[in-house]
Design brief:
mainly beta, 5-stranded antiparallel beta sheet, Neuraminidase, 5-stranded mixed beta sheet, single chain
């Protein structure tokens, strides 16, 4: 879900301390690549169910989440869908996903953080294996002033997790410390309140929000779906400046999930050219 912002204004929430002057980042697009369509990477006995949503990348492995909780495990190097199965995520929309750094004992991948979006608006923390995924933690944010959908994105290198939501007049990114599994209560839950918020940034005019990503001081916010414009916003979190708005309208119908590996931004797009299809793209960026 997503759209364009002609002049996205970033402001600090009331009560947040003023920021020291920070050197402004510069960013440019080096190149873009179409990696392929998942319908061409799957076997005949694999069936996709649910629209493509969150995308997470770790090494040569990617996980694409689908509406309703289906998980597609992907080998990016071989361009192969390795496994397709349903994770036990109730009726989660799964519109964002990202890997942390912590692993469970015997785990093959870092923990995966998946957005529920609606309902209880949880972040499901999954231990992903080759043929199954189990929920090992649930993260909640109790905000009595906002009852709409909520997105979650992780910055594993800096050790933070962000809640992304809010009304059209004031979307927000709220920053929390990324909890460890050991921080869970007896029911495997972690519940944030306003007292746990480390920082809040608000912005306007994102009419159809999609996934979200904050990594190493750079927020990348996709937005839009037809007939609205589709764009990618690059935001310097230190200066709160919008560095670049990239037009995505020539890529595919609707941008969905987003992740970053090194200098590459990975994006999943919903496509109607075949069955419930997903096109994967990556964008090489230079930040200095």
């Amino acid at each position: 879900m997503l759209c364009v912002l002609a002049g996205m204004a970033w402001t600090l929430a009331a009560g947040t301390a003023a920021f020291p002057q920070a050197a402004k980042k510069e960013i440019r697009i080096v190149k873009t690549e179409h990696l392929g369509a998942l319908t061409d990477w799957k076997t005949e006995d694999q069936t996709f169910k649910g629209s493509p949503q969150g995308l997470a990348v770790h090494g040569r492995t990617a996980v694409l989440m689908r509406d309703g909780g289906q998980l597609n495990l992907i080998d990016l190097k071989k361009k192969k869908v390795v496994a397709v199965y349903k994770a036990d995520l109730a009726r989660a929309h799964c519109n964002n996903a990202g890997f942390g750094k912590e692993k469970v004992r015997g785990g093959i991948l870092p923990l995966l953080y998946v957005t529920e979006c609606y309902g209880q608006r949880r972040c499901f923390v999954l231990d992903v294996r080759r043929d199954s995924a189990r929920v090992v933690q649930e993260i909640y944010y109790e905000d009595p002033s906002y009852k709409g959908p909520l997105d979650w994105c992780v910055d594993p290198d800096e050790g933070f997790i962000y809640a992304y939501g809010g009304p059209l007049a004031g979307r927000f990114l709220k920053k929390f410390r990324l909890p460890a599994l050991a921080d869970s209560d007896a029911d495997g839950k972690v519940t944030f309140t306003d007292e746990d918020v480390l920082e809040t940034v608000t912005f306007q005019d994102v009419r159809v929000p999609q996934g979200s990503m904050v990594r190493k001081g750079l927020a990348v916010i996709p937005q839009g779906c037809p007939p609205l414009e589709r764009n990618l916003h690059f935001i310097d979190m230190a200066t709160r400046e919008k560095l670049l708005v990239m037009d995505l309208s020539d890529f595919d119908i609707e941008p969905e999930g987003i992740d970053r590996k090194g200098n590459w931004i990975y994006l999943s797009f919903f496509s109607k050219d075949k069955e419930i299809n997903t096109n994967l793209y990556r964008i090489k960026v230079k930040v200095r």
